[in-house]
């Protein structure tokens, strides 16, 4: 793998960028692997990378039905933060945050991590109480989060409308300064490139259609559109399609799949310095390095695998954005799209062994798993390699929905981006 360096970039600039080698190969599937990861999103590719890097397991294939990063990884609005309420959540999201910090150097690939601050607006007394509770809980866990008055919020984000005449006036905000964004495609490409360099096979256009089990019930491999592939261990990391995959092995998971939409505006000069979220009106916004305003909303209200969503959701979101930021009223929207998010009852993920020997699942990230990509992949690789959870993901079991030991971020925040 050619290392990116100032000198390599300068040399290639001189010769029209014709000397860059292929970033990852596209091999034919082998007959057998030690581990198969289903799904080449950030979490799946990252898992393969850490299996090789941290555990020396390189006889691994990542199987992807479409193109790598073409699922939610390439469709999300890239908000990164770790200021969740519960200790378990703080553990996993902050583990991720620490890995984001050095990820570009680790992968030798610029994932454009930008800790520009994530500000969550409070619009009513309930919001104020909830965010202050989060701030105190976060501080106990060593996670930065601070309270801002409306004036301080406007100083941090000048386009913000803090008029008390607004339908949802801004009564303050919680700011996580280490929060921010990263370039989603680059995360998938960076992990793919680094994993392939360590000998992992990334096989695109290869849909898994069945999970095979031996007489003892243990996993023996998968059926795919490119034939049968054997494996001692299978890790399902398929986001919105996780329950479909788990059904193939006869395992029921408490997931519902919903469309979640996002949209971008025409590109403009830098005008928006941070990320702003409003859970109450359910809209959030940031500006990409290309200059587009990146805008997101809540999920559609119905389950679906359609990767599109209802127009009324986008209209509602833009109503809210225009009220919070009147300077954007005349902006033109460029394009919108949808992804399929897998939502658990408590809005926390499942990263665990399953009742089937050799089958592992990493799912349920719902509307907020991009931020967790490095941390999730890191601890899931540990779980698959050692057949036991890492202490950080130990609470994120399937059994919690039976035992009642929920990690109820749904109740804590009413939204879990
Ligand atoms: C519009 C939108 C906005 C979002 N905004 C944010 C945000 O701001 N911040 C945040 O943290 N999170 C956000 N998310 C959530 C985030 O995108 C996801 O939680 C995260 O990207 C999930 O990553 P993944 O690698 O698990 O899944 P994916 O990237 O979806 O990868 C799963 C892969 O599995 C493949 N697959 C499925 N079935 C099969 C099969 N049978 N065989 C082979 N392959 C299969 C899919 O094609 C897909 O590529 C958002 C999501 C959406 C849709």
TrEMBL record:
Methyltransferase in keyword set: no
Compartments where located: Cytoplasm
Listed Gene3D superfamilies: D-Amino Acid Oxidase, subunit A, domain 2, FAD/NAD(P)-binding domain
Transmembrane spans: none
EC number: 1.5.3.24
InterPro entries reported for this sequence: FAD-dep_OxRdtase (IPR006076), FAD/NAD-bd_sf (IPR036188), Rhodanese-like_dom (IPR001763), SoxB (IPR006278)
Keyword check for Oxidoreductase: yes
Cofactor (UniProt): FMN; FAD
Residue span, Rhodanese domain: 35-79
UniProt main location, coarse: cytoplasm
Catalytic activity: sarcosine + O2 + H2O = formaldehyde + glycine + H2O2; sarcosine + (6S)-5,6,7,8-tetrahydrofolate + O2 = (6R)-5,10-methylene-5,6,7,8-tetrahydrofolate + glycine + H2O2
PROSITE patterns documented for this protein: RHODANESE_3 (PS50206)
Enzyme kind, highest EC tier: oxidoreductase
Pfam name, any one: DAO
Keywords annotated in UniProt: Cytoplasm, FAD, Flavoprotein, FMN, Nucleotide-binding, Oxidoreductase
Similarity section: Belongs to the SoxB family.
Name this protein carries in UniProt: Sarcosine oxidase subunit beta
Organism for this UniProt entry: Nitratireductor rhodophyticola
């Amino acid at each position: 793998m050619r290392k990116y360096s100032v000198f390599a970039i300068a040399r290639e600039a001189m010769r029209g960028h014709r000397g860059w080698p292929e970033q990852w190969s596209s091999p034919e599937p082998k007959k057998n692997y030690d581990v198969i990861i289903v799904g080449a999103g950030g979490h799946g590719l990252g898992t393969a990378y850490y299996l090789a890097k941290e555990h020396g397991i390189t006889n691994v294939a990542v199987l992807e039905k479409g193109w790598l990063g073409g699922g939610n990884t390439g469709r999300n609005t890239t908000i990164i933060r770790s200021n969740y309420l519960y200790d378990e959540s703080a553990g996993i999201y902050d583990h991720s945050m620490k890995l984001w910090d050095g990820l570009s150097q680790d992968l030798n690939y610029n994932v454009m991590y930008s800790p520009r601050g994530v500000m969550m607006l409070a619009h009513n007394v309930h919001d104020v109480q909830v965010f202050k509770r989060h701030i105190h809980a976060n501080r106990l866990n060593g996670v930065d989060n601070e309270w801002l008055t409306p004036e301080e919020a406007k100083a941090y984000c000048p386009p913000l409308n803090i008029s008390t005449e607004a339908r949802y006036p801004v009564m303050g905000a919680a700011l996580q300064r280490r929060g921010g964004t990263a370039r989603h495609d680059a995360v998938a490409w960076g992990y793919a490139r680094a994993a392939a360099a360590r000998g992992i096979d990334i096989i695109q256009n290869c849909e898994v259609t069945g999970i095979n089990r031996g007489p003892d019930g243990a996993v023996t491999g998968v059926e795919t559109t490119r034939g049968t592939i054997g494996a001692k261990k299978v890790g399902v990391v398929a986001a919105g399609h996780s329950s479909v995959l788990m059904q193939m092995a006869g395992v029921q998971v408490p997931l519902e799949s919903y469309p979640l939409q996002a949209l971008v505006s025409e590109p403009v000069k830098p005008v928006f310095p941070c990320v702003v979220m409003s859970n109450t009106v359910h809209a959030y916004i940031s500006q990409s390095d290309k200059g587009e305003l990146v805008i997101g909303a809540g999920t559609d209200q119905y389950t679906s695998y359609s990767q599109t969503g209802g127009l009324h959701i986008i209209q509602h979101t833009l109503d809210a954005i225009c009220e919070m930021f009147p300077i954007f009223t005349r902006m033109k929207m460029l394009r919108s799209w949808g992804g399929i998010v897998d939502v658990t009852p408590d809005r926390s993920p499942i990263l665990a062994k399953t009742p089937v020997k050799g089958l592992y699942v990493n799912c349920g990230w719902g509307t907020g798993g991009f931020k967790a990509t490095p941390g999730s992949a890191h601890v899931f690789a540990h779980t698959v390699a050692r057949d036991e959870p890492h202490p950080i993901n130990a609470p994120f079991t399937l059994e919690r929905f039976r035992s009642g030991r929920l990690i109820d971020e749904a109740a804590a925040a009413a939204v879990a981006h």
